[in-house]
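Q: Sequence in, structure out?
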Amino acid sequence: MEFYSAEHVFEGKVISKTYTKDSLHFTVRLEALKHYKVGNNPKYMDFTFSSEGRFTGVITSCDWFVEKNENWLVFTEIRNSRLTFNPMCSNSQLIKDGISKQMRDLLVKANSFNIHDYIFNPTEIQFNSISNVKLDSLVGKIRKKLMGEPESLQLVMIIDEQGELEKVNAYFRPPYNIYKDMKFDSIYGLIRDYSPKKRDSLKEIELNLIESISLLKTWNILSHKKTNVPVKYYLSPVLIYNEDISEWKILGN
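A: Exactly. Output:
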């Protein structure tokens, strides 16, 4: 998704590093040696960052810096109306011993990436946040937990690009893990499909939840922030049994 969202993706060499007069910021110029993302890609790009701790007097565990003559793999983004990049929680990286095979495979195939082939998590920052359909009223109708039953349930709802419910399933936890029913792409690590296996051991609570939620056809539409393209996504709220009041509650509510 970072490739899809990025302005530019390229290998580049730092050809200059210049500090401001007060030494609190520096600007590096990178010469693009190879562009990976198709588009209007410049040969040179400048990036400005806060200076090292010896200049600013501030040192944190998140500090990172760029030096002249280094080679970088850069995924750029627009932040505060300025082109920038950051290797923290990103695929941008200092190239020391070359780029890994897994990353090269991604870079080769990423221009053919189709966002409609995947199922996304709505909490990821690349997407416009949504206000989920409230499930409290449904949860309140579930019977009390029986002796020996697990104290938590997990729902999985797949919502399509039009905001319509496509699939729904319910699981007792433990022992069930929802990701066992999800097929992941080997290159991007994204969810390609959700195909819950048929279970003969579905409990009354699970069946009741599935039936009730299936009646709620219209949900929210999730879209990619940069392109505004609507996407398919999943919701997976957890229900916890509250022994004090003998009721199921959605975790976090």
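The chain is about 15% helix and 35% strand.
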